[in-house]
Amino acid sequence: MTKTPVLEARGLTKRFPGVLANDAVDLTLHKGEVLAMLGENGAGKTTLMNMLYGLYRPDEGEIWVNGRRVEMASPNEAIHAGIGMVHQHFMLIPVMTVTENIMLGVEETRGLLSRIPMLGRINRREVAGRIHSLSQQYNLAVNPDDFIRNLPVGIQQRVEIIKALYRHADILILDEPTAVLTPQEAEELFVIMRNLTQQGVSIIFITHKLKEVLRVADRIAVMRQGRMVGTAQPATATEASLAEMMVGRKVILQVKKGEAHPGQPVLQVQDLYVDDDRRQPAVQGISLEVRAGEILGVAGVQGNGQRELVEALTGLRPARSGQVHIGGVETTHYLPRQVTESGVAHIPEDREKHGLVMAYTVADNLCLNRYYLPPFAQGPVLNQTQIDDEARTLVQKFDVRTPSIYTHAGNLSGGNKQKVIVAREFSHPVRLLIANQPTRGVDVGSIEFIHNQIVSQRDQGSAVLLVSAELDEILSLSDRVAVMFHGQIVKVMPIAEASREKVGLLMAGSATADTDEQVQPQVIK
Amino acid sequence: MSEPTPPTRTTARRILSRVGKGLQIPILAIFTSLILAGIAIVLTAQTPAIGWQKVLDGYWGIVDGALLRGSGRTNTLVAMTPLILTGLAVALPFRAGLFNIGAEGQFVMGALVGTLTGIYLNLPPVILTVVVLLAGFVGGAFWGFIPGFLRARLKAHEVINTIMLNFIAIAFTNFMVRGPFKDPNPSTVQTLPILPAAELPRLFGSRLHVGFFIAILLAAAAYYFLFKTTWGFSLRTTGLNPTAAQYAGILPWKQYIISMVLGGGLAGVAGIIEVQGITHVLTEGFASGYGFDAIAVSLLAVNNPLAIIPAAFVFGVLRIGGDFLQIRAGLSVHIVSIFNALILLFVAAPAIVRSVFRLKSKEEEQTQASLSRGWGG
């Protein structure tokens, strides 16, 4: 291809104290294509994007836009060169409207005083008009007058996209855009991305989800440990080949597990009702049972009561009515510590909020559930030597990649944070494992590791309740699948009967997926 | 810089570099405010030359008055004593995630309860001293318990409640001092003196009393409590991440109450020590701002109980030296207030901004960026 690339990076290098974050990275983006940037957490994708967007200055190397060399000293130069970035965490002000958010920083003014900085009247109507036409042009369906706080996450993301387009961006960097979206919203985003590229916008799409890459990318660039390790074409690449490029070794994407040998019931839930934070019913009459040595997967779109269910089981949230038994003992009104002490390990949904104390060292985080027990404490006095020794053992055993056990947990990558939690939760006798989204935002290598750990807990005789919004995770790990919808379990089935389509339909609230027999007579009528 | 690493974990060099880093901001803050206050003094003088002379005289006055003269040195240590304790009263709740603005009220309540015990309870010497100290602790602890409980059980914001309780405590104490417990001698507005058996012994024939060493000891004890015990671990975990604490089986509401009771108690001890060691009576307007300076002390020390000792020293020097600054430079009392306020502002600003808005310092962000790479599974 001889056409000038719209964006080209040549030999970009960025060093942080003690680390080479980007090592002579080359990157080419052509007009109207979706270039997927694939790499594990910490592979250097974000550093690279931050250099392209002017947030970091490269130590070496050049950036060329449309055949001209550009010096990116700040995001202003990047925006001027037509580069827009949609961050993973949105930069929107909830109490302002779409229009106000978009014109923030580039307010257009009119009236007598408009020539004087900061004194002109803001020309809201014209901005709203332009937003409306951009929204139409790219089929984004955004209303300029809506308040951000009332918009679902998927729409907020589109506002961010419009914000970039409004600043005349024709190169868009999307940083893990699907991490915050439901599967349906992600689908809509892919359609939008197609629309954009057809009209000449070029997109860099950062992700670590292999399926998405194969679906939407025109070209795939893979990074590993600060280097660009190669590019691939979606037509010829497979998930396995991409995973291997990312991790640098063969990765088993399919979990290897033998037959389940279910024993006695460990977790028994009867007719449980739980309210959410706004005191609305979130769990509405759930009954389920998990036996020793089996994995029950709870599938469901996020926000259907899974969080409240898990929190009620672990003592973090009161149950309104119903009963929970663990190992035959009623634990409905147990405090979190009592639940833990009755042999429950809990991998929480939000590891940064619930699972870890970011400002604590890895060692202190590893003893968070047992610090008050011997040998870590003698009476009320902490025994730091014991805590540190245990931490060294666990870091080794669970392959936590950390510079030292005194590193703050906040400085670890997502996968390693999760390993710290897994290591801690599995370090006391476990009878029941409750894992909520155990691999969200975790790199491929760590996913493999965590999945194997969950299966090995099962094989050692633990009961496992796995809650996940990732259908693939549910289908590859579970022995039985329960589908949750609107706070209820709509169906429980053995894994053999759980097809992708069937579970997907049940997740979406379609009750017909399992009622073929009943449907037919009606059709005849 | 926020987390003191226990010495067993690091080499002496790392500790030193940490301490060095920790000192950067306070030293810069004091230096900046000295310059700005100097400019203010120059601007208010008749001519710049006279102004600069005043600045030199005044600043030398601080050093001379608070550090060089024997009496100044003792007075500085005496002023440090309540500052250490009230500093701890702010630091402990802060570690649990609460902002205790109420040290002033807890200080006077401790002094009130302790003083009354010291006047009316007739016990042998050493025993009475200890009982009165404990009574001071109980008075302050009760005043800390109220906002702690309100926060723990009703989620009522502790900042508002501690401020309100300051007014109540001060007004109530003034009422008691003027009314029911006024010394019958009509010329003074104060209580009867505490029994001599309740007094804290003075040392070297100066105003320095045993209370100073009690304060140092309690600072060390608070450090041990926070960083070496399971109780302190629970408390700090709550302060750093209450949801993770709850998940780990800690009950955050309990930590809120414990930290406020301990903090209030220490402020109460500060109040009663001031009575037992110095005044021997309770007067109107007794607190004189120790509880408010405490916020600055604690912030300057980044809520580390051991660092509170030098931080209290800085503010002790300013308290004592401020008078000399005024006299030597012939300044109005307002200029001295400006000077104190500037120091407070610069010392507190970065810490306040960082903690109130839960911001990370630049330094932390840098380490985060640099470490996030290269450790992927």
Task: Map the helices and strands.
The complex is a heterodimer of chains A (525) and B (377).
Chain A lengths: L6 E10 L2 E11 L4 E5 L6 H8 L7 E6 L2 E3 L4 H6 L2 E4 L11 H6 L5 E2 L10 E2 L1 H14 L15 H14 L4 E5 L7 H16 L3 E6 L2 H7 L2 E6 L2 E6 L6 H9 L17 E11 L5 E11 L3 E5 L6 H8 L5 E8 L2 E2 L5 H6 L2 E4 L3 H5 L6 H5 L10 E2 L2 E2 L1 H14 L16 H12 L6 E5 L7 H16 L3 E6 L2 H7 L2 E6 L2 E7 L5 H8 L8 H9 L1
Parallel strand pairs in A: 3-10, 3-11, 6-9, 9-10, 15-22, 15-23, 18-21, 21-22
Antiparallel strand pairs in A: 1-2, 1-4, 4-5, 7-8, 11-12, 13-14, 13-16, 16-17, 19-20, 23-24
Helix pairs in contact in A: 14-15
Chain B lengths: L11 H33 L3 H21 L1 H26 L7 H18 L4 H30 L3 H21 L32 H18 L1 H11 L1 H6 L4 H28 L10 H11 L7 H22 L3 H24 L5 H10 L6
Helix pairs in contact in B: 1-2, 1-13, 2-3, 2-12, 3-7, 3-10, 3-11, 3-12, 4-5, 4-6, 4-10, 4-11, 5-6, 5-10, 7-8, 11-12, 11-13, 12-13
Descriptive account of the structure:
The complex is a heterodimer of chains A (525) and B (377). In chain A, 32% of the residues lie in helices and 26% in strands. Chain A is α/β, with parallel strands linked by helices. Chain A has three domains: 1-82 and 170-251, Rossmann fold, CATH 3.40.50.300; 95-168, no CATH class; 265-343 and 429-520, P-loop containing nucleotide triphosphate hydrolases (Rossmann fold). In chain A, the strands form six sheets. Chain A has a six-stranded mixed β-sheet with strand order 6-9-10-3-11-12, sandwiched between helices. In chain A, strands 18-21-22-15-23-24 form a six-stranded mixed β-sheet, with helices on both faces. A four-stranded antiparallel β-sheet of chain A has the order 2-1-4-5, covered by helices on one side. Chain A is globular and about 75 Å long. Chain B is built from 14 helices and no strands. Chain B has helices at residues 12-44, 48-68, 70-95, 103-120, 125-154, 158-178, 211-228, 230-240, 242-247, 252-279, 290-300, 308-329, 333-356, 362-371. The two termini of chain B are 29 Å apart. At the A-B interface, helix 10, helix 11, strand 20, helix 13 and helix 14 of A face helix 8, helix 9 and helix 14 of B.
